[in-house]
Every structure is written in structure tokens, then in C-alpha cells.
Amino acid sequence: MCLITRNSEFAAELLRQGELIGLPTETVYGLAGNALDEAAVRKIFALKQRPSFNPLIVHIGRFEDLKIVASEVPFSLEKLAKHFWPGPLTLLLPRSANIPDIVTAGKPLVAVRMPAHPMAQEVLHRIDFPLAAPSANPFGAISPTRAEHVARYFRGNLSLVLDGGPCRSGLESTIVGIDNGELVLYRHGSITLEMLREIAGSVRVHTREETAPQAPGMLLKHYAPSTRLILTDNVYEALGELGQSKVGVLSFNRSYEHPVIVCQMVLSPAGNLQEAASRLYDALHQLDTMQLDYIVADRFPEGELGAGINDRLERASAQ
Ligand code: TXA
Ligand code: MG
What we know:
With 319 residues, this protein is of the alpha/beta class. The chain folds into two domains: 3-205, DHBP synthase (Alpha-Beta Complex); 228-317, Rossmann fold, CATH 3.40.50.11030. 31% of the residues lie in helices and 20% in strands. α8 (193-200) links the parallel β10 (182-187) and β11. α1 (8-16) crosses α6 (118-126).
């Protein structure tokens, strides 16, 4: 049985005992354990069936805790932290000796963020260690944005999910690091490229063509429903090619009429990208339970949060 509760002290006690919990953050729910305890971190990899080459993000509650996890903080990244923390920004920093190899998959850098969700903050302030937490989904599956998503994924294999309500941002954190003295965006997320550039000036975007991706969350197939998802610039054309199928349509702000459509999710009829991002994964979870033959997703406008949404839809549609 997986308990869904708002009792943060109970959650903190499980963490102190080396157990895992489902943790709400402003982006998605995390599967959290003591980042300094190798055995606890092993449980995260096992429960998620995550390949060991894919490192975890470490979550801290206060700025002072940076020195527990990182050996130094380059000035340009510190500037971003000061501006965006607590919030959905993850920084790649030189790791400290406290961080077990398994957390960073042996890499010299550790991914760190300070979540803004009040319940994540509450738990982090009750414990005296940082939390390693990947998104609380089995490897490759849709990220969870509600406590029920987490409980449904792990059932009896996870004892507790803290219920912090639906996630406000709904896209995973933006990942930023430094390469050759230059700021690099490794994963699009809730903090957009435009927001980063406003604070930091120039920021390069890591492209898929670059070899040896630093962030394997950049793995091509990811965030995927089990129903085949087709991402398109032209919904009607895509529908026309599907013959006699049962299709669910996922779109930003417009709706479509076509005989094969059995369900339609318009993420923000008002055309608000933030609202659309916060509803994206929940809509995919719902569409995925409807026994459809296909999900057809309408590509978003590319700027601002549209970049992160399209990135997730592209990975969800990869074969
Ligand atoms: O919003 C988020 O970031 C959520 C919440 C729970 O905080 N977490 C999350 O974790 O999305 P996960 O494991 O699903 O994605 C973490 C990404 C992966 O793509 C991983 O490869 C990358 O961060 N990453 C972690 N440590 C890294 C490191 N040392 N170097 C490069 N990439 C790293
Ligand atoms: Mg994930």
C-alpha cells in the first residue's frame, strides 16, 4: 500500500531511516532519498529501473547547503542561483567528496537545485541531508504531476507519497552548466532560455547533434505514454493518414473536428503557455488510460515555454 499524506514529519522520518518517498516539487513529483546514503540512492535506481549511467539531481533546502554538495560554485552559475532559487533551475557544479559516485554516475559534476514547493522546503528543513530525486516515474515513462500518478506507478513498492497537490510548473527543471567558460542550456524547462539570457547574457543551447550528451534526460525516447504519440505541425493532415483509428488529440489552444477523434485535450483555451505546461503531463496520463490507437499532438509555438513543451513532445513521440 502506498500512503498518500500531507504529513511531512512522517515523510522526513522515513527519509532519515534510509527509505524513499514521493516528494512534490513545483515541477514534477520526485522519488526522493538521502543523497549522501549510497544504499538509499541504490533503491531509487532499482525502483525506477533507471540505468546506472543516468545521474540524479540533488535537492537542497538552503543556500548554505551548497557547500555540502559542491566543491565550488562558478560565479556565473551562482548569479543564476541567486536569481532563480528557490525554483525550477538545476545547475551542474563540481561535486564535493560527500556525494557518492552513484549519484553522479561517476561524473565530476553534480546536478543541484533548490525546489520552491513549500512542502519540499518543509521536508528539506526537517532533515539534515540533501535529497537525490529523479522524477517519480518508471524510466522513460510520463513524469508525474499529481500524488496519485506516483502512487499508481509504484503501488506497494513505495510506502509514502507526500501530497502537495498538482504541480504548478509541470515541466522538469531547466538544466544549465558551463562548457569552455560558456553557459550552456542542457535541458529546456520551466525557466526559459529567454529568462536565462535576461540575467546571464549569452547562453548556448546544447543540441542533440552534439555527441556524449551531458544530460541523458536528453535521451531521445523519454517522457513517453504507452500509446503511440504523433507530433505534427498539421493535425488534420496527420488525422487523415490514420484511417479507422481511435485518436486522442492534444493541442495548445485550438480544437479540431474529425470523425476519428474520440477525445480532445486543449491545454489552454486562453493560449497561456504556463497553463498549458502545467497541464501537459496530466493530459498525457489521462489520454494514455483511454485505450486509444494514437495520440496526435499539435506542435506548440517555439518561443519561451513552447521550447520545453515541444522538447518533451518530441521525446514522447520518438520510436
Ligand atoms: O524538475 C526536476 O528536475 C525534477 C524534480 C523532481 O526535481 N527532477 C528530474 O529528475 O527531472 P530526472 O532524473 O528525471 O532528470 C534529471 C536529469 C537527467 O536528464 C540527468 O541525466 C541530468 O538531470 N543530470 C543529473 N545529474 C547530472 C550530471 N551530473 N551531469 C549531467 N546531467 C545530469
Ligand atoms: Mg525524468
